[in-house]
């Protein structure tokens, strides 16, 4: 039960959505863009989110695209994770998405919702960071396409009134060798102790993480250490020295335990991609 | 489309059109149970974890505690009350795939969707789908057997 009231708006175009946001804001409301809605409903119930107007973006055609256009995979922010899994245009993204929540929940959870959410795991962003994807964002200044590295720094750095429309990924990245390991405290469903996603491009490992810090990340310093011509364990030990901070230390696992699990997970990832 | 705090929604549930006055902030689960008196979908965790509230939206399973009723306008909703003598219901009886029964409607709706969508479902697919629901009585083995028996019968009938 959502413990407060809100108005519900279902724009059918990007322009209408942006206008709605501005109009509602001018009326003194706190509008919020809404895709799958699972996180908004969950956090509302816990009084961790408040809005008095939701703008459902799922009827906007651009948000429902799943297509290859001009040598790029284009994924709309309103496409559900199971739709992406079933179409399987980007196997690493399929693998990553398929480990978010559970199958039924993923019928609702959208790509945009997972990436833009408050719950900090945001695992669907990992393959996009590795593939240097571009994000298409709408706001009062129009529609802009930017590098995901510019916009996603720990979380999506969206300005008030902006929303994610699409993610575009060069086709050349879609079939690169990949590895993905999600390790949980227990069971096959739930938040990660650590999630590691990796792509191998031009002989170099690209690695992104969730569950290690209170934000997903890809680190140049970590990748440089992992790609050294040294024994695997030495590379991993040096890489771990360059992790961003803080290391998560919560009910899912202590910081020390997460680092222990991460070390072994990285070994498995490297072994899988380098065949050592 | 904009709405006020209470609004009329036209919902199609189990093949019947219902006009409902509800808040846009009301979940589908709340509207089904408290406005339409369809109490088959169960409130469990209310957090999208347990799957007891699973219903079908346009044939696909959805946790109704995690969807607004207003989002389902124009869609087809099927609750456990809308399944009549389906193979999966019969299989749950034959395989004793429940104990207390609280999770059963959610499991049946999910399993029904699975057997309709993937008549050739592998063990991995069955496990992936069934992981969406929790049974506190741990009838998992019997539930899996019930699902597999429906798939087997479908194949024999092909």
UniProtKB/TrEMBL annotation, chain A:
InterPro entries: CO_DH_flav_C (IPR005107), CO_DH_flav_C_dom_sf (IPR036683), Diverse_Substr_Oxidored (IPR051312), FAD-bd_PCMH (IPR016166), FAD-bd_PCMH-like_sf (IPR036318), FAD-bd_PCMH_sub1 (IPR016167), FAD-bd_PCMH_sub2 (IPR016169), Mopterin_DH_FAD-bd (IPR002346)
FAD-binding PCMH-type domain mapped to chain residues: 1-174
Keyword tags: FAD, Flavoprotein, Oxidoreductase
Keyword set includes Hydrolase: no
GO molecular function, one term: FAD binding
Protein name per UniProt: CO/xanthine dehydrogenase FAD-binding subunit
Automatic annotation (TrEMBL), chain B:
EC number assigned by the record: 1.2.7.4
InterPro entries listed in its UniProt record: 2Fe-2S-bd, 2Fe-2S-bd_dom_sf, 2Fe-2S_ferredoxin-like_sf, 2Fe-2S_ferredoxin-type, 2Fe2S_fd_BS, Beta-grasp_dom_sf, Diverse_Oxidoreductases
Domain named 2Fe-2S ferredoxin-type: residues: 7-83
CDD domains named among the record's database cross-references: fer2
SUPFAM superfamilies: 2Fe-2S ferredoxin-like, CO dehydrogenase ISP C-domain like
Any GO MF annotation of the entry: anaerobic carbon-monoxide dehydrogenase activity
Keywords for this protein: 2Fe-2S, Iron, Iron-sulfur, Metal-binding, Oxidoreductase
Keyword Oxidoreductase in record: yes
Cited Pfam families: Fer2 (PF00111), Fer2_2 (PF01799)
Name this polypeptide is given: Carbon-monoxide dehydrogenase small subunit
Organism of derivation: Thermaerobacillus caldiproteolyticus
Taxonomic placement: Bacteria, Bacillati, Bacillota, Bacilli, Bacillales
